[in-house]
Design brief:
Blueprint: H1 9-27, H2 41-50, H3 56-63, H4 67-79, H5 87-98, H6 103-115, H7 123-134, H8 139-151, H9 159-170, H10 175-187, H11 195-206, H12 211-223, H13 231-246, H14 251-265, H15 270-286
Helix pairs in contact: 1-4, 3-4, 4-5, 5-6, 6-7, 7-8, 8-9, 9-10, 10-11, 11-12, 12-13, 12-14, 13-14, 13-15
Length: 291
């Protein structure tokens, strides 16, 4: 039986980071004010050439000190929206907004420090900025700060502190934190081991389409840990995990999950297998964005 602790952090985190940046670029409203008049024409021309592709009104507001506009400019550079992707410029604009207390910008600045994109890699600085954002309630920052504590990167390794931050994010519905909290209960790391709680948190993440949580929940159903043994449930969740990961990580993860799904199928009658397969198909019909 494959290990339950596969984390696959890098690809998931990178994807999440870009997705959140894209949402911010769409979500933050353009602030149409007369800030374009605050700069001399020659300076405006030079600035617009440097940042060609950025909406002039947005750029003027950002240069005038508006934190939301600065965040949006940083987001555009982060994902290459209307401008060439430039992590260094993203860091410049995120810092301007972060220093004004903008929580999302603090989170993104921390991410750039953690990954070493546009800045010298510095886990301690990542932790500082994640904490600032996390203390304002940003669930993504809370989850990532929890990860830093679990790994001892930029902060002393402290599983109890890690669990505390994971819980804050998990209770806000952050799927990665829910999975991590399930894993902490699974291993008894930073908290008393509790398989029932482990299964409960895996389920919350699994229901949001977290492939590794789906797989771990399938394992629990297969052996009857934290939940009653139920091969139909095991097959269902393993099917979701294999289908989800085939559209994201693929490779070895898919092979592992598909292999477990197929091994569980041997314990089902033809009618049980058919019902489980139909249930999985229906789930994806109802959650197409998670496939």
């Amino acid at each position: 039986m494959e290990k339950r602790e596969e984390w696959f952090r890098d690809s998931l985190m990178e994807r999440h980071w870009k997705q959140l940046a894209s949402m911010l670029v769409i979500a933050i409203s353009l602030i149409a004010v007369a800030a374009t008049c605050l700069h001399p024409p020659a300076l405006r021309s030079q600035t617009q050439t440097l940042h060609k592709g950025i909406d002039p009104k947005l750029l003027a507001n950002a240069m005038a000190g508006n934190a939301e506009a600065q965040l949006k400019v940083g987001g555009a550079y982060l994902i290459g929206d209307s401008v060439s992707q430039d992590y260094a410029q993203a860091a410049v604009w995120f810092r301007k907004a972060a220093e004004q207390g903008q929580a999302d910008a603090q989170y993104f600045l921390g991410g750039l420090y953690r990954e070493g994109h546009g800045l010298t890699q510095d886990s301690a600085q990542a932790a500082i900025w994640f904490r600032k954002s996390a203390e304002q309630g940003n669930a993504f920052a809370q989850s990532d700060l929890g990860w830093l504590y679990s790994e001892g990167q930029g902060v002393p390794q402290d599983y109890t502190e890690s669990v505390a931050w994971y819980r804050k994010a998990a209770e806000q519905g952050n799927a990665r934190a829910q999975f991590a909290l399930g894993l902490a209960y699974d291993k008894g790391q930073g908290i008393e081991q509790d398989y029932v709680q482990s299964a409960a948190w895996y389920r919350k993440a699994a229901e949001q389409g977290h492939a590794h949580a789906q797989y771990n929940l399938a394992l629990w159903y297969g052996v009857g840990i934290g939940v009653p043994q139920d091969y139909s449930e095991a097959y269902f969740w393993a099917s979701l995990a294999a289908a989800t990961v085939s559209h994201s990580d693929g490779g070895k993860s898919y092979d592992n999950y598909a292999s477990y799904r197929d091994s569980v199928a041997a314990y089902l009658t033809p009618s049980e297998l058919s019902r489980a397969q139909e249930r999985a198909r229906k789930w994806f019909d109802e959650h197409p964005v998670l496939r």
